Amino acid sequence: MRSRALLLVFALTGCASLGRSVFATPIVELKDVRLKGIGFQGGSMDIILEVMNPNDYRLDATKLTYNLFVDTNRVAFGEIKQTATLEAHKKTQVVVPVSFSINELIRATQLMSKTGGVDYHVVGEVTAATPGGSFTRPYKGDGHFDNIASLKPR
To answer: Which of 117, 123, 124, 143 is the most exposed place for a label (fewest CB within 10 A)?
Structure first.
C-alpha cells in the first residue's frame, strides 16, 4: 500500500515536470497605447497587448501585472485578474486599462517639451493556466510618442 502511494506521488510529480518542459512561454508584445481621456485630476489610457500562444493547446491567462514607465518614471502599475482565453497558435489582444495622475501627465509633458518626445516602457508578468499547471512569465514592450494624440509602439 505504501509503495502504491509513493508510486502515485512520483507519477504526479513526473506529470507536472513533463507539463513544465513542454510548455512554451506566450509571447507578449506591446501593440498600441490609446489615450482615452484627460481631465483636471488625471487621465486614462488603454495599453493593448498582443499575446501569442505558441503551444498546441489552449491557455487561460488568469492574471497580468503591468508597470508603465514614461522615460524612467513609473506612472502606472497594477494587475488584472480577468481570464483571457489564448487559443493554440493564435494571437489574442488583451486590453489593460490604466489611470494616471495629473502630476504624471505634467512630468511627461515637460519632458516632451524639452526633448520633442518621450519613450515609454511596459513590463510585467502574465500567468497562464495549462494542462500541466499554472506558469508565470515576464513580458516587456517599448514605444515612443511625439505628442499626446500619437502614441505608437516601437
So the answer is: 117
